[in-house]
Amino acid sequence: MQRLIKLISTFSLLGYSPVLPGTLGSLAGLLLYIIIAKDLKGYISISLIILVIGFLTSGKQERLFGIKDDKRIVIDEVSGMLLSLLFIPYEKLYYCAGFLLFRLFDICKPYPARKLEAMSGSAGIMLDDIVAALYTNLVLRIITCKVLQ
């Protein structure tokens, strides 16, 4: 069971990359988005499944690693990236901007992300990325409204 938790929380061990594991997790989420986004029901379903699985596994893996919000846990970035692009028009400009904005918000941790990150377990791991995703989605909605007018 521990191997399965590690495989899931590190997104098929992608989190073990020695270089920018969070960015690679976000890229994996973006790639998954590109593959599934045209099927809205499938996209929503997969996004929700990854979100729930992230909450179920990330805190357990954090305890196994013995490090608070260990950088190897990247399912939160995958989930955040998928949520960032939810209901945003499927266009390269928007999903590339979404990737950059999500990374910016995930790194800068605007309020209340930093406070949420301080929480223990899965909540602290997942919620700051959900906030980054919400900010990203909001900015993209503003951009797409202005561009599409």
Detailed description of the structure:
By secondary structure, this protein is mainly alpha-helical. The chain has one domain (2-148). Helix content is 74%, strand content 0%. It is built from seven helices and no strands. Helix 3 (40-65) packs antiparallel against helix 4.
Q: What labels describe this entry?
A:
0% strand; 149 residues; mainly alpha; 7 helices; globular
The percentage of residues in β strands lies in under 5%
Structural class: mainly alpha
Low-confidence stretches: none
**What is the makeup of the main sheet?**
none
Alpha plus pi helix count: 7
Helix content: over 70%
Which shape, going by the Cα principal axes? Answer: globular
Radius of gyration from the alpha-carbon trace, in angstroms: 15 Å
Let me know the average pLDDT.
94
How many distinct beta strands? Answer: 0
Order of helices and strands, N to C? Answer: HHHHHHH
What is the number of domains? 1
Task: State the distance separating the first and last CA atoms.
Answer: 51 Å
Topology:
Elements: H1 2-9, H2 21-36, H3 40-65, H4 75-84, H5 92-108, H6 113-117, H7 121-148
Helix pairs in contact: 1-3, 2-4, 2-5, 3-4, 3-7, 4-5, 4-7, 5-7
Give a quick precis of the structure.
By secondary structure, the chain is mainly α.
